[in-house]
Structures are given as structure tokens and as C-alpha cells.
Amino acid sequence: MAKASSLSTLFGNAVCEDFMAFVEDDKSLSVSREVCAALELSEDATQDGGIAAALNRIEPGNSPKVVMVDVTRSLDPDGDITRLIRKMGTENTLIVIGDANDVGEFRKMVALGARDYLVKPLTFELMKDAIENIDRQSQAVKASQSGRLTVVIGVRGGVGATTIATNLAWIMANEEKLPTALLDMDLHFGTTTLSLDIETGGGFREALENPHRLDKLFLDSAIVKDGERLAVLGTEEPIDELVDVSEESIDALIGEISQDYNQLVIDLPRHMLPTQGALLAAADAVILVSDQTLAGIRDINRITQAMTSLQTKGRILKVVSRVGSERAAQVSKADFERGLNEPVSYIIPEDAKTLTVCANAGKAVGEVATKTPIVKVLRELAADVSGYEKPKKKGLFTIVPGGRKKK
Q1: Please, how many CA atoms are within 13 Å of residue 122, restricted to the half-sphere of its CB?
Q2: Is the pLDDT of residue 29 over 80?
Q3: Superfamily grouping for domain 147-386
């Protein structure tokens, strides 16, 4: 840990930004100072007085990221912990020190909001491991939150947006080895499950219509797994039944599913665009798929213009699909880019033969034709939106620990 800085408040109480320990006895004070020195924390990070001192020192909005408190002399430890957590806020972490070597006590402290419970006597190894474990957990949370939301939209019908969304998700899960969820929001005519030869789940519609009931068990009933890392949400609702999909239900669904899958790919039909402004604004990447036609130019420009008012945080990637065949009304690449006033992001070539084999077999393109041009482009696009970097191959003269080249 880096050396902690101090935060000052209107109350005149300075606290260390990263960590502070409030302990009661001389032995614990000595151990805490030793650990803080080893972790390059401020000398002021160790304070005498236990949880009473912590309650006096810490004010709302002015808490160290990690606080360790001794509750052995508290007359009301449960109440004191509750008050301290309220002052610290939900983003900071509390470690409690006590003298009851009891599993029930540990569970009670965790239920009150503490992250960990240490039993006296406090030792160097015990305290150091507890602090470093918080660091490790924080890194794991950041890793899980570093996932990305990719929305794929076909600006015209029949341009291959669903094929692209399905294969991007498959590549992320099977080649990049990232836990990935694929959501097909065409609830009546979606084909993602058909493309992968899997059954549709039974609870997708219920999850969307009842966001207040959404939890892991509910979600698991709607998910269909394709392999170890790819979860697919799709359904085939009766065409005479309207399914109400609100922004709130999509937000709740994404929040729940992102706890287990850090790559989310959503195949969003263009008729849902007017109701999904929040989704588009939250996306890390929005992929607009078009054929190389004048109508495609018009519709990419219209959607891009509409999205500028949403303050979309992510990138807008303009992808031209099914290029290379003699298609009616197809314009040249130069004319298409001139109409967009910028180059297209990716060009996906036509490969009717491979796609026909994939459709008949219910397999992703990467399973059927691993070295074709269409797979190459899809892999590049998948890595672009997922942030994946292919590991470098180790050669004869690879770097070994210590920074010297192996001879």
C-alpha cells in the first residue's frame, strides 16, 4: 500500500485516507504500528482508544477507506458498530477486533456490516493478512466491474446484426475465456438461441416484467448455458402478445447478470430504440450494423444524431456487413464513408457458404471456419469491445524473473 495521505475536516479531525486502526491495549498498539510501518502507512494510522475513539474521530464524508476497531471495552458493541458504519458510508470497509472466539460472533459482526472479525491477541501476521485481504478483495471487485456492455443494433433489416452479436459473444466466452452473457431483446422473433442450437429459457419474459422479483435464482431460470462461460437469454413469445420492456427492467437485469458475467452483449432490435435511451447511454460500445447502401447511410446518421443527445459514455462503432457480393443498391466504400463523413470502423465480408453451414449446424462461425476472413474481422471486433489482449507467446529468449534475458 502507498503511504497514506491525511484528510482534514471542519471539525479539526485529521484522518488517514487509506487506513486507520483504533485499538485498546499496549500489545495491539505495538502490533498495529509494526504492521503500518511494514505497509508504508502513516504513523498516525494507529490510534489508542478503540471504537469510542473511532466514533469521535470519524465524521460523515471523512472516513479512511479501511477502518479497524477494537470493541472489547465497548458497552454496546452492536450499537457502536452500527453508528460507525453509518458514519463511514457504504464505500468504506470495517474490520472489527474482539475477544470472543466464536463463529456466531463473527457472523453477527458481518451481518452488522463489518468485512472481517479478528480475535485477540492481535498478531503481526493476523493483522497484515486482514489488511492485504481487503486489498485483494478490492482488486477482485474492480476486475468484476471492469466488464463491458456492448449493444449491437441493425440499422436495416437483414444486415446480419444478430449474427454479429451472437458470434462476438461466442468469441468472448470461448476464445477470450471471459464470462459472457448474450441477451436477445427480439422477444418474438429472436434467433440467437436458434443460431447456437440451444433451447430458449423459460423465465426471460418474467424477469423483464417483474424487475422487483429479480434475483440470482430467478435469473438462473431464464439463462441457458452454451458451454462453460456463455449464458444466453432469449425467448419466443406468442406474436399476439405485447411484452412490456421498461428501462427500469433492463437496468435491473443488467445489474443482476453483471455480477456473474463481466461481458454483456445485447442484440437490440431497432424498433426498441425509442424506449431504451438509458441503455444506449450506459453502453461502453454501441455497434451500428448496416449494409453498404444509401438507406444504410441515412439510418446510421439518424441513429448517431439521436444518440448524441443521450450523452452516451461509450463509443459508436459503424460496421458494414455482407460486403463483397453483388447486392442490389450497394454503393462503393468511398461513397458510403463520404456519406458518413468518416471511415467505417469494421468491414465484415460476405461469406454465404460459411454462414449457411453455421446456420444448418447451429454453430458459431469460429467453430466451423477458424481461419476465414469473416472470423478474423469478428475476432478483431470482439477484442476491441471487450478490451481483450491476446497473451504473447513465450519464445526461447523470454524474459525471466529478475529482468534479465534467458541465455
Answers
A1: 31
A2: yes
A3: P-loop containing nucleotide triphosphate hydrolases (3.40.50.300)
